Amino acid sequence: MDKQAQDAFDRANVDRITGHRRMRRHRKADWSRRLVRENRLTVDDLIWPIFLVDGTDTSEPVDAMPGVFRLTVDRAAEEARRAANLGIPLIATFPNIAMERRDETGSHILDPDNLVNRATRAIKEAVPEIGVMTDVALDPFTTHGHDGILRDGIIVNDETVAQAAEAAVNQADAGADIIAPSEMMDGRVGAIREALDAAGHQDVAIMAYTTKFASAYYGPYREAIGTGGLLKGDKKSYYVDPANGEECLREAELDVQEGADSLMVKPGLPYLDICWRLKQEFGLPVFAYQVSGEYAMMKAAGANGWIDEEKVMLESLLSFKRAGCDGILTYFAPRVAELLAKGV
């Protein structure tokens, strides 16, 4: 059989097998791939987590997170301006509190003039159009590195919730647009909602860390906020077991009932299934936190030439969109925004 006859035979055979359905028709050119693309990553999907430190005109590198810095309040305001110019809609702040201000109960979180609140005021004054999200977890404020108040070796739930609600009001007073409670105490979303409303902050939203897992991916973050060497024991008595999925739905149902405006999954990539389930079950905005360990692994592999860091970064973020997320907290946010502005 000559080549022309062989080609005709092969085509006929494939047509018979596929029923003339050729999936590659839409893949043949850039224009056709763009035409049928199901998910897109845009700058509107990005939330940029930044770290804060006391002082002035200083940026301290975080060794475990190349390209990430702890910023003094003035520098944070400058970076917020850069973020706004790039089109990033929201930043999230996390403080590295000086050790002399930490104690067993994390009481400094209640200071209206603490580092978080000063940064919020400075950012909103410098860049009023950008959103600011703050956390009420106590780990940056305690001497033991736990997210709640530690008494006799136990994280006490109700006392922690009361303190978180009071801190949330202070943060809203300073100008926070979203309170994102990450300490995983029972009842904290409802308590914060009631406290915010009573203080006249009905327009301040709550993004609940609905499923914050007892994960091994948080190490570099703990270095960034200065709790890495402080933690006594682990956080398994209040974070979600990584083995559990149904429990996440029960957590989310409670958060929704208590008044959460949106739901967050943390970490991100290992829990894409949870992102999808929450979106399908509740229909609220769902966000994922691409945490420090995820970031550090990509940076390390990229630096060693084992992966194309830029392509893997973008592919990983797109996976969150495919899993139903409305946005992603990522330390890559400014770099991604720059690439998207260039049409990458």
TrEMBL record:
Active site: 212, 266
GO molecular function: porphobilinogen synthase activity; zinc ion binding
GO BP terms, alphabetized: protoporphyrinogen IX biosynthetic process
Top-level taxon of the source organism: Bacteria
Keyword match Metal-binding: yes
Pathway, per record: Porphyrin-containing compound metabolism; protoporphyrin-IX biosynthesis; coproporphyrinogen-III from 5-aminolevulinate: step 1/4
UniProt keywords, alphabetically: Heme biosynthesis, Lyase, Magnesium, Metal-binding, Porphyrin biosynthesis
Reactions that this protein is recorded to catalyse: 2 5-aminolevulinate = porphobilinogen + 2 H2O + H(+)
Assembly: Homooctamer.
The protein's name in its UniProt record: Delta-aminolevulinic acid dehydratase
Protein's organism: Pararhizobium mangrovi
Biological classification of the source: Bacteria, Pseudomonadati, Pseudomonadota, Alphaproteobacteria, Hyphomicrobiales
Gene that this sequence comes from: hemB
